[in-house]
């Protein structure tokens, strides 16, 4: 037992006791309650990082296996230009383009087949089935068809995001109740009016569900597609080559970038959801 | 209202869509593969008519898009015609992937359920862990797959376990989230009833919370098995293409063997379909035994 391991133990026990104490508080004001809700997971996350740091030093784990968080941070700061180039290639070019195209296409097809129950009955089971398939496997084919650069990644992302969007939009458009539809009919609303005033608002929670699922899928699709071939830039490319060159700290730096990018992306979609579906019980309940 | 027949209502639309997809596929085969045929003819100094091009596009060795019959032939050749022990048998590769998937799925399920039980019974765990469980879903965890494989390999763990670990990692999130929801689903009235019976925490858990959570568990299991198959396949990519469906995909893409890629893809799809439907079957069976309405 050396100092670092003892420190890790002490930090862990201390932070856990603090958290146990914090969650038992019954603050009067709503703000204090909210603050505790944020502080507790932050303490937990910070504890994990601290314990990681201490254990790496304490057990003298070679950096090739598991670098300390501080070493990763240094690497992250030092190689910012490379990381930024990778981020541009993978995230800004492949993920965003593919995400918008795939989600837009899924939404458009859902609207197109909206008036044909026959096509809906045919496409829904297939869409559900494809959503369960390992679609990332299509990556090598797309790389062959569209070349090494970002268009092939866009194609993978489009295919991965299309089906969840299609299925959720169709379900969402069907979610308005009969009473509400009958009411619209008594107003003599036509298809377009009914869509914009009733069915689309009712479908937003479903559509945002798909958008959230897709934000993760898109990033995964783009990164995995890069394992099959890229120009010499991109997050997936960097991860696979730096693993080969045993620069594990660089890999972790890239993962940190991917994690932050993924979380921010998801967070933005979630924010948009709160803004659009402000009337939904889950959002109203969350604010109180 | 009379009930529409199963065939007209369910089967026919799906069959129609599949037929349309097949037609589009065949047209695409001709369209995508024709340039190669024309190119070959131009090099040989001959002129081919459209009637000559079409049959040739369906029988290329390395087509841009293989025709369905080529894929079926390849599937037949590598599953039925080859002995299962052969390294070229797709059954062998599918088994490698399947075992990693099932192992990871099993570990992920156990881990996920344990975590969910902890989260439901301990407020500190709930407050500190739950946000991270949700946040970790937004992180492209698959990206670290190559690192896990290589790092574990360098400390002497190789073969099944690293791939299974990736599957575990991917599959435990949906289970934690679903189980927490499920274990909390009994309403206050029922919990109060257990209280009036003077039930202990364990009794409440086994007699009320656990049965109430089962429908949620099965829904999560379906998501989890699909995603752990993805994890196993991606986990096979960086191992230098040794064995498994992912390795088939990678070696196929290195050597331009499009038919091999498509066959592996179809095998993966079939595997996913079988796994998900097994869980679906178990789901209906359990619900039936619990007395749910069909």
From TrEMBL, chain A:
Alphabetized SUPFAM superfamilies for the sequence:
MetI-like
Can the keyword Transmembrane helix be found in this entry's annotation?
Answer: yes
TM spans, by residue?
A: 6-23, 35-59, 91-113, 125-148, 154-174, 217-239, 251-272
Q: How does this protein lie in the membrane? A: Multi-pass membrane protein
Task: Show the Gene3D superfamilies listed in the entry.
Answer: MetI-like (1.10.3720.10)
The main place the protein resides is: membrane
In which domain of life is the source organism classified?
Answer: Bacteria
Recite the UniProt keywords alphabetically. Cell membrane, Membrane, Transmembrane, Transmembrane helix, Transport
Query: InterPro entries under this entry?
Result: MetI-like, MetI-like_sf
Segments forming domain ABC transmembrane type-1: 104-276
Where it sits in the cell: the answer is:
Cell membrane
User: Can you say what this protein is called?
Assistant: ABC transporter permease
Q: Report the source organism.
A: Rhizobium lemnae
Automatic annotation (TrEMBL), chain B:
Regarding protein family, the annotation reads: Belongs to the binding-protein-dependent transport system permease family.
What Gene3D superfamilies is this protein classified in?
MetI-like (1.10.3720.10)
Listed A to Z, the keywords are: Cell membrane, Membrane, Transmembrane, Transmembrane helix, Transport
Taxonomy, top ranks, is:
Bacteria, Pseudomonadati, Pseudomonadota, Alphaproteobacteria, Hyphomicrobiales
Q: Which residues cross the membrane?
A: 12-32, 92-117, 129-152, 213-234, 259-282
Q: Which PANTHER family match?
A: ABC TRANSPORTER PERMEASE PROTEIN HI_0355-RELATED, ALKANE SULFONATE ABC TRANSPORTER-RELATED, MEMBRANE SUBUNIT
List localization entries.
Answer: Cell membrane
Q: Does the keyword Transport apply?
A: yes
Q: Domain ABC transmembrane type-1, which positions? A: 94-283
Give the species.
Rhizobium lemnae
Recorded hits in Pfam families, A to Z, give: BPD_transp_1
Determine the domain of life of the protein's source.
Answer: Bacteria
User: What is the name attached to this protein's record?
Assistant: ABC transporter permease
Q: Which CDD domains match?
A: TM_PBP2
Its placement in the membrane is given as:
Multi-pass membrane protein
InterPro entries in the record, alphabetically? MetI-like (IPR000515), MetI-like_sf (IPR035906)
The principal location of this protein is membrane
């Amino acid at each position: 037992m050396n100092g670092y391991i003892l420190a890790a133990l002490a930090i862990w026990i201390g932070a856990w006791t603090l958290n146990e104490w914090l969650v038992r508080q019954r603050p009067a004001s709503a703000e204090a309650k909210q603050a505790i809700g944020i502080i507790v997971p932050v303490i937990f996350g910070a504890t994990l990082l601290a314990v990681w740091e201490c254990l790496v030093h304490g057990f003298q784990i070679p950096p090739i296996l598991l670098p300390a968080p501080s070493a990763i941070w240094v690497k992250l700061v030092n190689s910012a230009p490379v990381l930024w180039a990778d981020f541009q290639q993978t995230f800004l070019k492949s993920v965003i383009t593919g995400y918008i195209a795939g989600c837009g296409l899924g939404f458009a097809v859902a609207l197109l087949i909206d008036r044909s129950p026959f096509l809906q009955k045919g496409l829904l089971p297939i869409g559900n089935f494809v959503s369960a398939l390992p679609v990332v496997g299509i990556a090598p084919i797309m790389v062959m068809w569209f070349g090494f650069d970002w268009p092939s990644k866009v194609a993978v992302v489009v295919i991965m995001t299309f089906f969840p969007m299609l299925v959720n939009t169709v379900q969402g458009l069907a979610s308005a109740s009969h009473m509400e539809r009958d009411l619209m009919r008594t107003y003599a609303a036509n298809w377009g009016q009914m869509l914009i005033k009733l069915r689309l608002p009712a479908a937003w929670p479903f559509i945002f569900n798909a958008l959230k699922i897709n934000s993760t899928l898109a990033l995964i699709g783009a990164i995995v597609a890069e394992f099959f071939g890229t120009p010499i830039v991109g997050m997936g490319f960097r991860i696979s080559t730096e693993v080969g060159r045993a620069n594990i700290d660089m890999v972790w730096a890239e993962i940190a970038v991917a994690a932050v990018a993924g979380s921010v992306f998801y967070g933005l979609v979630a924010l948009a959801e709160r803004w659009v579906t402000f009337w939904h019980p889950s959002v109203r309940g969350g604010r109180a | 209202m009379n009930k529409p027949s199963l065939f007209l209502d369910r089967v026919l639309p799906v069959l129609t869509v599949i037929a349309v997809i097949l037609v589009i596929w065949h047209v695409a085969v001709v369209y995508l593969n024709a340039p190669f045929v024309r190119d070959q003819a131009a090099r040989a100094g001959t002129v081919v008519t459209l009637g000559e091009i079409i049959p040739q596009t369906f029988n290329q060795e390395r087509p841009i898009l293989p025709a369905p019959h080529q894929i079926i032939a390849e599937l037949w050749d590598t599953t039925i015609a080859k002995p299962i022990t052969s390294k070229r048998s797709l059954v062998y590769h599918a088994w490698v992937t399947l075992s990693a998937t099932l192992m990871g799925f099993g570990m992920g399920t156990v881990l996920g359920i344990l975590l969910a039980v902890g989260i439901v019974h301990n407020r500190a765990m709930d407050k500190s862990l739950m946000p991270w469980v949700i946040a970790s879903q937004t992180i492209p965890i698959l990206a670290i797959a190559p690192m896990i494989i290589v790092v574990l390999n360098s400390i002497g763990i190789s073969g099944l376990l690293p791939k299974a670990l990736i599957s575990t990692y991917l599959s435990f999130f949906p289970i934690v989230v679903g189980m927490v929801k499920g274990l909390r689903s009994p309403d206050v009235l029922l919990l109060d009833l257990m209280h009036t019976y003077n039930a202990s925490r364990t009794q409440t858990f086994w007699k009320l919370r656990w049965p109430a959570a089962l429908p949620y568990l099965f829904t999560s299991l379906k998501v989890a098995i699909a995603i752990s198959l993805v994890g196993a396949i991606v986990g096979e990519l960086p191992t230098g293409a040794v064995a498994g469906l992912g390795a088939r995909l990678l070696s196929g893409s290195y050597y331009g063997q499009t038919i091999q890629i498509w066959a592996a893809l179809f095998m993966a799809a079939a595997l996913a379909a079988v796994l998900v439907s097994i869980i679906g079957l178990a789901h209906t069976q359990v619900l039936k035994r619990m007395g749910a309405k069909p």
